[in-house]
Amino acid sequence: MKRIITIQDISCVGKCSLTVALPIISAFGVEAAILPTAVLSTHTAFKKGFTVHDLSGEITPITAHWKAEGIAFDAIYTGYLASFDQIDLVKKMATDFPEALLFVDPAMGDNGKLYYGFDEAFAHKMAELCAVADIIVPNLTEAAFMLGIPYNPDYDEEYIRSLLKQLTTLGCPRA
Q1: What is the pLDDT of residues 103-145, one digit of tens each?
Q2: Based on C-alpha coordinates, what's the Rg of the chain?
Q3: Sequence-ordered alpha helix ranges (H) in 28-83
Q4: How far apart are CA 160 and CA 124, in angstroms?
Q5: What is the C-alpha to C-alpha distance for residues 94 and 54, in angstroms, rounded to an integer?
Q6: Tens-place pLDDT, residues 30-73
Q7: How far is Cα 129 from Cα 11, in angstroms, rounded to an integer?
Q8: Which residues have C-beta within 8 Å of that of residue 12, sequence separation ≥ 6?
């Protein structure tokens, strides 16, 4: 049986994050190991007032335990990462589990805006993670911020092809 680590938040309200990824991965007959990055009271679309419990301190001990037990993974799939440190921890995981395909969903913005709490520096740091990934799946907002170009909501096929080509210059072979 294939085994995937899904590394992302648990949003207590909102159709996203581990609450959505886990059943979908499982429905495909793949074992989904979870590595929560944070617990959020709601999806960040609710903007003000949501609570965040950062779980960065748990990532290293959990992955060390997996390595000690000889647990292997076919893929590492990221979603919402709550901090710069978590991006670095995922990059380290990619070297700790080199046989695993690294699939990165930058999960940091939509509709031309970054999610609450993220800024352009975070987008540039996320681009560093995308550079070492095997596959990246940014939306248009995430792609624009990582590339440092204006977001264009009136896109055509030529614009999308241009974005994809620019994304591969980050280092990832597939966008």
Answers
A1: 999 999 999 999 888 999 999 999 999 999 999 999 999 999 9
A2: 16
A3: 56-68
A4: 20
A5: 21
A6: 999 999 999 887 766 656 777 788 999 999 999 999 999 999 99
A7: 22
A8: 39, 40, 41, 42
What is the spatial distance between Cα 49 and Cα 168, in angstroms, rounded to a whole number? 37
**Better-scored residue on pLDDT, 16 or 3:** 3
Note whether 83 and 118 are within 8 A (CB): no
174/157 Cα distance (integer angstroms)? 17
Taking the C-alpha atoms of residue 154 and residue 29, their distance in angstroms, rounded to an integer, is 38
Give dist(CA 84, CA 65) in Å, integer: 23
CB 104 within 8 A of CB 78: yes
Q: Are 4 and 76 in contact (CB under 8 A)?
A: yes
Please count the residues of the chain. Answer: 175
pTM of the model: 0.91
Side chain identity at 84, as an amino acid letter? Answer: F
Torsion angle of C-alpha atoms 11, 12, 18, 20, degrees rounded to 10: -110
